[in-house]
Amino acid sequence: MNITIIGAGYVGLVTGVCLASVNHDVIVLDIHEKKVDLLKQGISPIYEPGLEPLLKQQLQDHKMTFTTDYHEACNQAEIIILAVGTPSKQDGSSDLSFIKSAAEEIGAQLMKNGTIIVTKSTVPVGTNKKIKGWIQNRLSGPYHFSLASNPEFLREGSAIHDTFDGDRIVIGADSQAAAAKLEEMHRPFNVPVLHTSIESAEMIKYASNAFLATKISFINEIANICEKLGGNIEDVAHGMGMDSRIGPHFLQAGIGYGGSCFPKDTNALVQLAGDIDHKFELLESVIKVNAKQQVSLVNKAREHFGSLSGKKAGVLGLSFKPNTDDIREAASIEIVKQLLAEGVAVTVYDPVAIDNARSVLGESVSYGEHLFDSIEDQDMLFIATEWEEFKVLRLKTIAKLMKNPAVFDGRNCFSLEEAKETTVDYYSVGRPAVI
Ligand code: NAD
């Protein structure tokens, strides 16, 4: 099939490369010229395991091209997939301006009947109706097109695996023919397909992310209570997860969720509910709990030292989770900002996210070239992301390198037994402090 993807970000690029690798002819369009130039050379502008070699292969096999030209991208496409960003507006609702301008460009370039326009971006229920209007307003002739919602569930860090081996593909289309064609497009992925209405498909994405965020805030609250009453959250979560009605996933206590999806999508769902006068109290609490959880380690550090002013801190891990360079809404950034506000000199380290962090933190912090740069001679060490290279470190080594070995581990990377054998004052989440 001739498929066009609009937006070469985490979702659009991975989707494009995977569709090309199962023999579709794919054009990916982005308005960001530098990104498109890099992609034409087979260089991925994002860090995603396995992506770059697969991209190079598709270019070599002539299955994939990149462009900034809407005419070239849209006029012959059988299927056009919208994968542009839908960031949060100030009030938390979804900013649809990228979707609108992409839809208008598509409308202006449609030159044949039967194109299916698919929304993969996460958009509020009802957006596909707006997209239809934005396209129609720009059509240069009486062309007929179909619409579908096909929300994306990939996780950064395992995006290619998730595309080929996901739990489900959700298709909400406005005609049976469009639904059948989209099912055919996905067939090589061998993932179960669920057909729904467009509105249900749009809601499945928000409801899924909101539910996962709820699980995270729930276990973090149980962790906070364990810290005060006694109990070890690892054992508690294990015991809960053995119940098949609960399941073991998403029960890791830590410093909260981040990334480009959960914070934005939970806020958007609260706003969406508010628009129809429904106060989504449960989700509002989930969001509040997460905001507190992100800086909970700094509170522990303040209690430990009395005052943080004039101290030196290392922060290991900046990406919102391992195996990605995405720092959007990462707990690490909140921790760094809080430390700086309290007069702490901060040195950060991340294996792949330093460039992205620099664009947010600028010269307010020092950047370690090696992870030891964030540990050596520091008064305190924060672990914000559970990268494998941090987990294989030994607390004994950390103790030797630090001035006052105080470790605030937001991802429970080390066992309490190991901490007890060292001179490190060790604080983690939902487990007793070792001091
Ligand atoms: P991103 O910010 O990484 O990429 C978006 C891309 O769209 C950028 O490259 C940008 O230059 C481009 N763009 C913006 N306006 C454009 C326009 N008018 N025409 C063409 N290109 C345009 O975003 P992302 O993380 O890939 O997310 C895209 C959508 O998918 C969002 O709605 C997001 O919520 C959803 N989603 C993301 C993930 C994820 O893990 N990142 C997972 C599931 C769903």
UniProtKB/TrEMBL annotation:
Top EC category: oxidoreductase
Identify the domain of life: Bacteria
Q: Please give one Pfam family short name.
A: UDPG_MGDP_dh
Q: Which UniProt keywords apply?
A: NAD, Oxidoreductase
DNA-binding found in the keyword field? no
InterPro entries under this entry?
A: 6-PGluconate_DH-like_C_sf, NAD(P)-bd_dom_sf, UDP-Glc/GDP-Man, UDP-Glc/GDP-Man_DH_C, UDP-Glc/GDP-Man_DH_C_sf, UDP-Glc/GDP-Man_DH_dimer, UDP-Glc/GDP-Man_DH_N, UDPglc_DH_bac
Could you tell me what reaction this enzyme catalyses? UDP-alpha-D-glucose + 2 NAD(+) + H2O = UDP-alpha-D-glucuronate + 2 NADH + 3 H(+)
Per its record, what are the GO molecular function terms? oxidoreductase activity
Q: Annotated pathway, please? A: Nucleotide-sugar biosynthesis; UDP-alpha-D-glucuronate biosynthesis; UDP-alpha-D-glucuronate from UDP-alpha-D-glucose: step 1/1
Q: EC number(s) of the enzyme? A: 1.1.1.22
**Record's keyword annotation contains ATP-binding:** no
- Domain (UDP-glucose/GDP-mannose dehydrogenase C-terminal): residue spans on this chain: 314-416
Entry similarity comment: Belongs to the UDP-glucose/GDP-mannose dehydrogenase family.
Which NCBIfam families does the entry link to?
NDP-sugDHase (TIGR03026)
Q: What is this protein called?
A: UDP-glucose 6-dehydrogenase
